[in-house]
Each structure stands twice: as C-alpha cells, then as structure tokens.
Design goal:
Farnesyl Diphosphate Synthase; homodimer; 307 residues; mainly alpha
C-alpha cells in the first residue's frame, strides 16, 4: 500500500480535473478562454493541497470518496485561479510560472483575468457536481472553501494585504498560504467522515511550515528553481518573508518546530501511519534543495522523530 | 398586495446583502478590500436579476424563502463582480459606474481585481449559508449559477467573446446578458418549489429583451443615463449591438415580440398575475426614456396585451 497509495491519490486528482475540463468542451464556448484555463491547470505543480486533502480524507476512512475527489479538484482550481491573478501586471507581473509562460504572457491580460474568474466559478460548480448524492456536506464545504479563499482570511485577503497601506503581518502570512492548507485539511476531514474541528491544527501548522519553506527558498536564490518560479522576489517586491526577517538558520529552526507540531497534532485515526508517511514525503519534496544536505537531514529528522 | 409586494422584494434583497456584508466585518480582514467590495454592491442599481428571481420564487409558492433570499443575494454579488471586472482597463476601462467612480478608479486596479474575485467567492459562500436547512437544493443551484456565470455559456464566456479572434454573435449575446437572467428565473423556480425546466423560456426571452433594450439605449446616446453608465460605447468599442445592426425601429419591434413571448411563457402558477404585473413594471423601468413616448407606449401595450 505504501508504494501505490501516493500514485493513487495523484490519479484521483488528475482524473477529476480532466473530467472537469472535458465538461467544458461544448459547442458555443469561447475557445481561447478554455485554452487559457487549461494552461493554468495542466500540467500541474505538486498538487500539494488536493493531495493533502485526499490524504486526510483517507486517514479519516474515506467515507465519501466522490465528494473528496470533487473537493480536491475544486481546491486545486481555486489555487490555480489565484496563481493566474497573482501573476498579473497589477500584482507580481510574473512572466513565468511552472517553468513556462504565465497565462497573461501567453493569452493576454484580459483573457488571464477571465480565466481566473472562470476557474473560481468552475471550482464551486465542480463541488456541486461531485456531491449530488451527498448534498448534506455542501453547506460546510462551501463555508470552509469560502474561508480559505475569501476576503476576510483567505488567499484573496492575503493578496489584498500587499495593497493595503498598513499590513497585519500575521494575518497576511496566514491568509496568503495557511488558509488554503487549512481548508484542504478540514474539507478532507469533512468528506472523509472525520471531525473537522479536530483537524484544524494540522492544517494550520502544515500551511505555515510550507510558507516558511517557501520563504527560505526565495531567499536562497536559485533554490526555488524546482518550483518553476523566480526567486528573490520577496525582497525585490518588499513583501514580508520570515527568512529575510530572522535569517535562514532561525527560519529553519522555526520550520522544524512547525513540522513537529504538524506531526503531533494528527488525530488518532485508522490510517495515521500512512498520513505521517505522506507528510514526511511532502516535506522532503518542498524543503528547498539549496538548504544543503546537513540542514535538510536535520529537518527531515524532526519529522521522522515525531512519528 | 400589489402596492407592497415590490417593496417587500426589494427589502428581502437589501436585507440579505447587508447581512452578508455584516459577516465580512471581522477583525484581521484587510479593510480596503472590504470597502472596495461594498463600493461595488452599495448603493445598488435596479437589482433587476435578484428581483426577477424572487418574483418567480413567489409565483411558484415561495416554498424555501431563505434559500431564495440566499440565491438572490448570490446572483447580485456575481453580477456586481462582473461589472467590477468589465470596467477594468483591460476591458472597457470605464471610470464611471452607477453615476460614480468605478471600483478600479476609486481603489486602484489591483484592489478591483481582488474585489471582483472576492465577490465571486462570497456569492457561493452566501448560497451555502442560506441553504443550511435545504442542502438538497444546492447541487442544482450550483449547476445553474455556474452555467449563468461560467466559461461555456455564462457572463465570463460573454466577456471572453470580446477578446476572441472570431466571435459567435448568438453565443455572445446570450452569454453576456441572457445567461444570468435565465439563471435568475431557474434558481427562482428551484427555491420557490416550481419545475426549473418549465421556466427556462421565460428567462431566455426576458434576458434577450433586456439586452435589446440596453442596445437601443446605447445607440440613442443619452438615453441610458438613468442606468448611470456612459452610452454610445458599443460603436466606440466595436461591440455587437442589435440596434446598430437593424436600426432602432426594427430593434424595437424585435423587443416587442420578445416581451410578448416572455409574458406568454409564464407558467400556470398561484401568483401568475403578480408576476405579470412585476414584469410589466420592470419593462417600464428598463425601456430607454429616449425611445420617445409613442414607441414606449406601443411596447408597453405589447406587454399589457399579453397579460
């Protein structure tokens, strides 16, 4: 199982996403818009958020697998939409994403704005399409996803903090990355049959750990190349960055503590070991290569030691 | 009842929208983003789409009034989001909307993009919040709203046709305005307890009538002033416009025929008369003043005669 399980999760995500896009192939739809949306979603990045969602759902017993697949696809569509809009000239003006042209570079600004909008709408439509036999899950799923991406504490709020005259740093960090990881864990628990509240803390710790690792990668210029995006941008754009504030070593120590917290807060469940293994693997994936072997080893030990 | 009913509908819509915005007033939320979103929604325009939705729900028996209120607020938030993004420099570059500064003029382009995104998310969150006791309605509501705003035939598709190298005129018109009116009627039927399929044709005819009236107003420069937006823009921006293609008189005849169809396709229901009255009033509101009294009278007679 431990060999096949990660592959199986990836298949569930890609299958669901492909089915969603098959549904867009209808006569009378504007073709360029559809191409721009595909460009934003395929080929994907690490699909970290939907994989986390399905891992938690599986750990909880995978009670409503169809709903979990829909929530996973929905979450990834929302994440991709945020990347398309973050890359726009009004924000980061990024020309490269996942190693190739960003959507606005490839399709123009107007089409990129619309592709992002359409991906958000598609995310919620997808959620409905995958819960036709479990509609009782929908109010909670809509609430949690809305919180993860919305205007008060979600990724849109996180992006907005970069345009506010006064920045609430804690809220910024949590909203920009943490919120969607939290939504991944909680929607995983809802669709898996677990207690959503009890899983919140894992989402929070894992999300913050991912953000700190990303901040370290951004500082260690070149180290983020495996993410297929430019680095050193936080300093250039004056964005808050933990590794810039504390230094890389202190940031790495903070990261180790977050990873320990994440591992320890995993709820007692049928598949606790499999989830711990999945998290350890993911950490290995998102830790910047440029941290150097000794520091990476130490961090991976922090994860291993907590299992 | 006939005097109080329209006021009651308006109250239901404004109350629901205000409650939704009260929910955004939480500590830690980025304040400018919230202000930009409010600017996009209050004070509103004619609230034509949610009023149509509630009128149909009432005609069907208003079986799930809370769900209808949520769907009405959701629909209006989606409509406002589309206006915010359509006004952006990448599209119409409109500086004025509803008689005052557009969102990007008042808050900057970045904040306008985010406000639009956040309004879309909020629309779906609202739908979930208002259907906690009727979740069985959600899959259909999500499907219909998704179709009304999405990438294949909704308002995002309509806007995208303006950036496609080859335009499907029929699809463009239907998607740009018709789709959301159709969604208003169908979600009204779903939440009111009617048969959604049976109500489709009213939505289609009413939506097209509204678009033709808007096209006429745009051509009769100055006549659209009551909508609080500039006119003569279709010709300037090279956008398809029925009144430009056929001339105002032929467009008005087409409009009369659409209005007759709309009135005749109203399903047998408890409150058929009230709905017909509401439609007649709405037509009186959205017919351009600049059409002149005789032509307006003739069109209103087309509506009256079908009652």
């Amino acid at each position: 199982m431990t060999v096949l399980a990660p592959l199986k999760l990836t298949c569930r995500i890609e299958d669901s996403l492909m089915k969603v896009f098959d549904g867009l192939e209808v006569p009378g739809a504007p073709p360029l818009l559809g191409q721009a949306m595909r460009h934003a979603v395929f080929p994907g990045g690490a699909r970290m958020r939907p994989r986390l969602l399905l891992s938690v759902a599986r750990a909880c017993g995978d009670r409503h697998p169809e709903a979990a697949n829909g929530a996973a696809a929905s979450l990834e569509l929302l994440h991709c939409a945020s990347l398309v809009h973050d890359d726009l000239p009004a924000f980061d003006d990024a020309l490269i994403r996942r190693g190739r042209a960003s959507v606005h570079k490839a399709f123009g600004e107007a089409m990129a704005i619309l592709a992002g909008d359409a991906l958000i709408v598609l995310a919620f439509e997808t959620l409905g399409a995958y819960t036709r036999v479990t509609p009782q899950l929908l109010p909670d799923l809509l609430r949690v996803l809305g919180r993860g991406v919305g205007a008060t504490a979600g990724i849109v709020a996180g992006q907005a903090w970069e345009s506010e005259p006064q920045v609430d740093l804690r809220a910024y960090h949590q909203a920009k990355t943490g919120a969607l990881f939290e939504a991944a864990v909680v929607t995983g628990a809802i669709t898996g049959g677990g207690d959503p509240e009890a899983w919140l803390s894992l989402g929070r710790a894992f999300g913050e750990a991912y953000q700190v690792a990303d901040d370290i990668a951004d500082v260690l210029n070149g180290g983020g190349a495996h993410l297929g995006k430019p680095t050193g941008r936080d300093a250039a754009l004056g964005r808050p960055n933990v590794a810039l504030e504390l230094g890389v070593t202190a940031a790495a120590e903070h990261l180790a503590s977050l990873l320990r917290t994440a591992m320890e807060t995993i709820q007692p469940c049928q598949e606790r070991k499999a989830l711990q293994l999945w998290i350890a693997r993911s950490v290995d994936h998102f830790l910047p290569k440029s941290l150097g072997a000794p520091m990476r080893e130490q961090l991976l030990e922090a994860v291993q030691g907590s299992r």
